From TrEMBL:
Residue ranges of the region described as Disordered: 86-120
Gene3D superfamilies linked to this entry: 3.30.70.100, Calcium-transporting ATPase, cytoplasmic domain N (3.40.1110.10), Calcium-transporting ATPase, cytoplasmic transduction domain A (2.70.150.10), HAD superfamily/HAD-like (3.40.50.1000)
An example Gene Ontology molecular-function term: hydrolase activity
Organism of origin: Meiothermus hypogaeus
Residue ranges of coiled coil: none
InterPro entries on file: ATPase_P-typ_cyto_dom_N, ATPase_P-typ_P_site, ATPase_P-typ_TM_dom_sf, ATPase_P-typ_transduc_dom_A_sf, ATPase_P-type_domA, Cation_Transport_ATPase_IB, HAD-like_sf, HAD_sf
Protein name as catalogued: Lead, cadmium, zinc and mercury-transporting ATPase
The keyword Phosphoprotein is assigned to this record: yes
SUPFAM superfamilies on file: Calcium ATPase, transduction domain A, Calcium ATPase, transmembrane domain M, HAD-like, HMA, heavy metal-associated domain, Metal cation-transporting ATPase, ATP-binding domain N
Family of this protein: Belongs to the cation transport ATPase (P-type) (TC 3.A.3) family. Type IB subfamily.
Pfam families, A to Z: E1-E2_ATPase (PF00122), HMA (PF00403), Hydrolase (PF00702)
Membrane-spanning parts: 136-153, 159-174, 186-203, 209-227, 363-382, 394-414, 699-719
Length: 750
């Protein structure tokens, strides 16, 4: 070996290339699945453009664009060449996945969400005759009727009238087809219809060509109507937040009320919410008591009584008392704006079935064109068939082969389901989540805050040294500042009995075991019995007391000045009133439940027995991960496992499950992290999610059957010479109508 090997200087570490700025466009005319696919393909073929997210129901295109490679003007020109009108909505630099805690560093996030809401308002559903598809239907229909009328006056004029109706009606389709050819997508639906219509004119079948163009325009109109109906749910959300607010200004006796635009409110300001009015921004009640109707936001049907310290959502209806509310979030970043933004992103996220159909259609459409060519050429050349007859059948096959209804079958159903869920407090982040939910057969529940109220109360205090108040004061000093429900229960009890909290420092959480802090010069620990036993042996009498409390379903924590035991505190968290009903509904759906908890086995068993489900107790966070993995491996075939938690402490387990469902009542973490969230904060929402997802997948299967079944019928009748060109287009237009109407049934989900 070379004793002095030549050393090579390490390559300098390079910072990753910064992500190109995000742009958001409102694309007028993009109101069907095929439109969205074309624009997505265009972006993918544009140098410097990446990560397109397209939602045809809201007519929104999001993408990252490096303008040093392709200027935005060039991108917009390409979109216009496809027949659409793009309008830039969100400024550069907006990050679509910025978490709320980063909002201060990403001010554009709020603007993006605000414009999400404004954009939905701009998407006014015009009367059908005022839309692009409506104008095309009217134009082709008038020309068709005119040609028919000419037939009674002068047959020769009628022929030219049909030709004119065909050419004028097919011109927009031909433009789109040519734009697709230039952009690398020659085999589009527009291409098939254009070839079929012009071919029919060439073989002197102009009347049928005109009818074909008219029926195709009707099919596109139906797709636009479907998009408008699905969009209505999001528009309803955007309309919830009031336009004005009553701002309180001044101090003491000089306080006055001034009506201001709700969009001008800022964090920290105080507003008055009068009976019958809507809350203008997310905030906290400072004074007053009232029942608030949260149903517009969370889907909760019963008004909830709230008072000082309780959180309120923008858009909730104040039913009786006058409330004073502190604004906690900018109106552009309130719960409604976040829901709209996340629903829009969910609708842009394709389900696996939709991605498969997109891939299939890339090969299917050119395959149809190739088969039609063979049918037109082979029988006349080699079998002695008549050219006119087989050309006619080939053109009919092109129309039968149009994949409009097939491409539409999944996204309209998914969009309708996501919109229906959002209006009922069920937030689903994309078609992939819906498909996975439909296959869930096991649901793992966290206990605290999910199956139970999440507001445990101290029931017993046993002081081994000093008084009960002193014990509570020391324990609260260790736990103060913690967000854990048990810690909050101890602090609340200490405040209730008037205990004095000595100064504390160096608070630390011992994950899954307890907490410790420096109090009065000594390190005190509040922990579980198992953790306490690791620090010091427990006397038999103490162990007996702990066992007796745990048999009553109570959670016991111990306060130690290691190794000395200072006392015991028992806490109980009651099951939610709807927990038993929710588990019963899941069993009716064939879904099994299991409770995962860090509590001791006795407490967990006491809660689980009352609810009638299996329990795994005394779990560390890593144990929950392991059990979720075991449950996933135990499932057969394509069956899936869901995890339901509060979206905070259970984040690792939520991520490990096939579907993570967060209980959160609209909290930031619940909205931003899990695959789905129950805004109503009711555990019965889990069964609602599964019912909605299964219903959606049934509709998708029906849609695909409609689309392919009608094509099969008309293919057979056309080749047998029973049906011709204009009935052939019904194989697509008729399927489009059936698929649209069938999908819109999901909007009525209850």
């Amino acid at each position: 070996m070379n004793p002095n090997p030549r050393r090579t200087a390490p390559a300098p570490v390079q910072d990753p290339a910064p992500e190109a700025p995000e742009l958001c466009y409102l694309v007028e005319g993009m109101d069907c699945a095929d439109c969205a696919n074309k624009i997505e393909a265009l972006v993918n073929r544009t140098p410097g453009a990446s990560n397109p997210r397209v939602a045809f129901t809201t007519q929104v295109l999001r993408l990252n664009l490096d303008e040093s490679v392709t200027p935005r003007e060039s991108l917009e020109a390409r979109i216009r060449s496809l027949g659409y009108k793009p309008t830039l909505r969100v400024p550069d630099g907006t990050k679509s996945h910025t978490h709320p805690e980063e909002a201060a560093h990403h001010p554009d996030r709020g603007e993006a969400r605000a414009q999400d809401g404004e954009r939905v308002h701009e998407l006014e559903d015009k009367p059908w005759h005022a839309t692009r598809q409506g104008r095309e239907v009217i134009t082709t229909g008038v020309l068709l009727v005119a040609a028919l009328v000419f037939g009674f006056i002068e047959p020769q004029l009628s022929r030219w009238g049909y030709i004119a109706a065909t050419l004028i009606g097919v011109w927009p389709l031909a433009r789109k087809a040519w734009a697709g050819v230039r952009l690398g997508n020659p085999f589009s639906i527009n291409t098939l219809v254009t070839i079929a219509a012009i071919g029919a004119v060439v073989i002197d079948e102009a009347p049928e060509a005109a009818v074909v163009v008219f029926l195709f325009a009707v099919g596109e109109l139906l797709e636009g109507i479907a998009a408008g109906r699905a969009r209505a749910g999001i528009k309803a959300l955007a309309a919830l937040a009031p336009k004005t607010a009553f701002l309180l200004e001044g101090e003491g006796e000089d306080i006055r009320t001034r009506e201001v635009p709700a969009s001008s409110l800022r964090v920290g300001q105080v507003v008055q919410v009068r009976p019958g009015g809507r809350v203008p921004a997310d905030g906290t009640i400072l004074s007053g008591f009232s029942a608030l109707d949260d149903s517009p936001v969370t889907g909760e049907s019963v008004p909830v009584s709230k008072g000082p310290g309780d959180s309120v959502f923008a858009g909730s209806i104040n039913t009786d008392g006058v409330l004073t509310v502190r604004v906690d979030k900018d109106p552009s970043d309130n719960t409604i704006a976040r829901i709209i933004h996340l629903v829009e992103e969910a609708q842009g996220s394709k389900a696996p079935t939709a991605r498969f159909i997109d891939r299939f259609s890339r090969y299917y459409t050119p395959g149809v064109l190739a088969i039609a060519t063979l049918i037109a050429v082979v029988p006349p050349l080699f079998l002695g068939g008549a050219w006119h007859e087989w050309l006619y059948k080939a053109l009919a096959l092109l129309l039968i082969g149009c994949p409009c209804a097939l491409v539409l079958s999944v996204p309209v159903a998914i969009t309708s389901a996501i919109s229906a869920g959002a209006r009922r407090g069920l937030l689903i982040k994309g078609g992939a989540v819906l498909e996975t939910l439909a296959r869930v057969r096991t649901v793992a529940f966290d206990k605290t805050g999910t199956l139970t109220e999440g507001r445990p109360r101290v029931t017993d205090v046993v002081a081994l040294e000093g008084s009960e108040a002193e014990l509570l004061g020391l324990a609260a000093a260790v736990e103060q500042g913690s967000s854990h429900p048990l810690a909050k229960a101890i602090v609340e009890k200490a405040d209730e009995v008037g205990a004095t909290l000595p100064p504390s420092s160096d608070q630390q959480a011992v994950q899954g075991k307890g907490a410790q802090a420096m109090v009065q010069g000594r390190t005190l620990v509040v922990g579980s019995p198992r953790y306490a036993a690791e620090l010091a042996p427990l006397a038999a009498e103490v162990a007996g007391q702990i066992e007796a409390m745990e048999l009553q379903g109570k959670t016991v924590v111990l306060l130690l000045d290691p190794p000395a035991l200072l006392g015991l505190i028992a806490i109980r968290d009651e099951p939610r009133p709807d927990a038993r009903e929710a588990l019963s509904q899941l069993k009716q759906l064939g879904v099994e439940g299991v409770m995962l908890t860090g509590d001791n086995a006795r407490t967990g068993q006491a809660i689980a027995e009352g609810l009638g489900l299996e329990v795994r107790a005394e779990l560390m966070p890593e144990d929950k991960l392991r059990i979720i993995g075991e449950l996933r491996r135990a499932e057969k075939g394509n069956q899936k496992v869901a995890m339901v938690g509060d979206g905070i402490n259970d984040a690792p387990a939520l991520a490990q499950a096939d579907v993570g469902i967060a209980m959160g009542g609209g909290t930031d973490v619940a909205l931003e992290t899990a695959d789905a969230a129950l805004l109503r904060n009711s555990v019965t929402g889990v069964s609602d999610l599964i019912r909605l997802s299964r219903g959606t997948m049934r509709v998708v299967a029906q849609n695909i059957a409609f689309a392919l079944g009608l094509k099969a019928v008309f293919l057979a009748t056309t080749l047998l010479g029973v049906t011709g060109l204009w009935p052939a287009i019904l194989a697509d237009t008729g399927a489009t109508a059936l698929v649209t109407l069938n999908s819109l049934r999901l909007l009525r989900f209850r």
